[in-house]
Amino acid sequence: MPTEAKLGLLARLEQGPVICAEGYLFELERRGYLQAGAFVPEVVLEHPGLVAQLHREFVHAGSDVVEAFTYYAHREKLRMVDKEHLLEELNRQALSIAKEVAEESGALFAGDICNTNVYVPSDPDTASAARAMFEEQVGWAVDAGVDYVVGETFDWGEEALVALETIKSTGLPAVITMAIHRSETTRDGWKPEDACKRFADAGADVVGLNCSRGPQTMLPLLERIRSSVDVHVAALPVPYRTTEAEPTFQSFTDPDCDVIPGDRPFPAALDPFVCNRYELEEFARKAHALGVSYLGVCCGAGPHHIRAVAEGLGRTPPASRYSPDMSKHAFFGTDERVKDEYKEYAKQL
């Protein structure tokens, strides 16, 4: 294993940006192995080879991290689908799959916890319930030997602090990221930069944003966060063309389509809004120029998006061998071996 592979998260961040691929829920739903709506990652048990292969594809595309597919693998989500008895098996299996791919590739091995969907500030018992869920999942991650733990997609700042405290109690590095909805605040009413400052002050090693917002509507918030904290900043947008009018992918409307159930494109009719790879490449350049050092793509990401992020940072991962090169295209090519008659006919295509 190369020397670089032995470096931990913080050491790697000191050397340069770290890329972390996310988006497993949406990618495996697209492939027909996970149900939109419930979004419980049962595929980890039903088709472990597919999860391992997706990990490998993301690493091939440029991800420095293999993040265990334990997002939404917590007690509340499994209770919703009447499969709470699978909780430990699912988590340990997801961690085992990720560890295998991380070890074979030299990538970092990350655990993952997330929003519980039980926390409400008016009920102290819900904070205790969330903490218990975090402790279960983080405990299994520690047993598996993760390099660090991600706590992500929180919209309650206080819940994120509970997650952070749980992670830090293990001595492992913690990455804490928020999902910011239309209001541009957490559900507690904290501005993103204030929330991230609280997390940094409480010991988070990396703070920032993931999910919900696409590149265009995440970048302005990142600039404010970067100027408010001294720790590393994370940015993992969804690969969708969110706008000032519709700043999150949950807020999209599609007036040109009248066959979407409920008239809400999220989550299964987002195709018209997808960013192309060049937009993700440009986002990576802009975010890095702001001082963002932990970069990735969240729900909706495919390996080609991760490759675009890597190339935006000036890297050439193995997948870059197959990056587009139109020079030898039958009609649009510039190579001298492309027939002139075909080049000329390209104007009519």
Topology, pairings included?
Layout: H1 9-15, E1 18-21, H2 24-30, H3 43-46, H4 48-61, E2 65-67, H5 75-80, H6 87-105, E3 108-114, H7 124-144, E4 148-154, H8 157-168, E5 174-178, H9 192-201, E6 206-210, H10 215-226, E7 232-236, H11 277-290, E8 294-297, H12 303-312, H13 340-345
Structural description of this entry:
The chain is of the alpha/beta class. The chain has 13 helices and 8 strands. It has helices at 9-15, 24-30, 43-46, 48-61, 75-80, 87-105, 124-144, 157-168, 192-201, 215-226, 277-290, 303-312, 340-345; strands spanning 18-21, 65-67, 108-114, 148-154, 174-178, 206-210, 232-236, 294-297. Strands 1-8-7-6-5-4-3-2 form an 8-stranded parallel β-sheet. Strand 5, helix 9 (192-201) and strand 6 form a beta-alpha-beta unit. Helix 11 (277-290) packs across helix 12. The radius of gyration is 21 Å and the shape is globular. Mean pLDDT is 97; it is low at 1-5.
